[in-house]
Amino acid sequence: MSILGIRSRVKSLVKTVLGLEGPPSAPSNPEVRLEPNEGKVTEPLGSSAQSQEFSADSSSEAENLQAKDLQESEIKESEIKESENKESKPDLETTEQTPLKRAKPIELSSEDLEQLEHRSREKSENKESEQKESEQKENLMKVPVQINVQETPNPDACMFQVDVALIDSGTYEFKKGDDVSHAPLAQRLLGLEGVELILIAPRFVTVRKSPEIVWTSLTDKVITALEGFFNSPEDAVNSKEQSVDNSNLSDVELRILEVLDEEVRPAIAMDGGDLVYHGFQEGVVRIQLTGACGTCPSSTATLYYGVQNLLMEEIPEVKAVEQVSA
Predict the structure, then answer these.
(1) Do 129 and 198 sit in the same domain of this protein?
(2) Is 316 helix (H, G, I), strand (E, B) or coil?
(3) Are 145 and 227 in contact (CB under 8 A)?
């Protein structure tokens, strides 16, 4: 309907209301109905139903679009998760198909092998040495060493007997001024004032003092030094066991050594002494007395009336014994 037509209808309606004209004619537009009493414009019932159907169709379509968007969003999230899982996990098929590469063996020269063997041997020796020191410390802590002081025929020498082995065999004599870097026990004892000489044997230590020093003041110092040594992991002497080459000795000399080792040395060891064999020539045995016997006033009698008579009795080839000075 045109604007002019609407205006004409409105005027006619006003006149009718005021009583100036009769009721208005039916509208030409069948879709619009005029209520004469209320003045309201209403739509036909068919138009309302169509509007409801359109509204329902629009709502349904919106819900369908929303559900579709939600489904697409879930699909995208699922694809993203699958992609992340593939990146984080290794491809098992590819891993299984890829062959492992073996490292090439290292070729070592003979020098390298020697160095490796030397290092292995050093580690083993160090381990054994540490274990030995540990065992020595445990033994020292468990068993206290007993020290017995015994006088000797020499007034300037005294024996300190112990109940543990200081060395395996033989004897070691050290004097003031000697190199004692390899003898920890000698370092301790010779460091005491008044000690001039010590003799280390397997089961005793002989200490020879200066004539002007008295034993009452020195004995306690020697015992204290010995106790300090036994509470340490040190060896009395670090050098290897003394060995004597007897391959060039004659049968007579071998017999002389046998008598000295089995009969003479044990006897003089009881007095804190020892002897050193210096050879046999023209029937004369040359011997040096050590320890307490070195400066003992009765050493001459011991040598000539004891050792000489025994050797001459046991070995007819021996005619005399001669003492060698230190």
Answers:
(1) no
(2) coil
(3) yes
- The residues facing 290 across adjacent strands are 274
**pLDDT category of residue 70 using cuts at 50, 70 and 90:** confident
Phi, psi (degrees; rounded to nearest 5) at 160: -120, 100
State which of 94, 126, 143 marks the end of a domain. Answer: 143
Summarised one tens digit per residue, pLDDT across range 239-292 is 755 566 677 888 999 999 999 999 988 888 888 989 889 999 999 999 988 888
61 or 308: which carries more pLDDT confidence?
308
Compute CA 225 distance to the chain's CA centroid, rounded to the nearest angstrom. Answer: 34
CATH (domain of 319): 3.30.300.130
**Which of 57-61, 67-71, 79-83 has the weakest average pLDDT?**
57-61
Q: Which two tokens stand for residue 54?
A: 């359109």
Please state, in angstroms and rounded to a whole number, the distance separating the CA atoms of residues 76 and 50. 39
165 and 126 in a common domain: no
Domain hosting 25: range is: 3-42
The gap from C-alpha 278 to its chain's centroid, in whole angstroms, comes to 51
Q: Is residue 132 part of a domain?
A: yes
Contact status, residue 292 vs residue 311, Cβ threshold 8 Å:
no
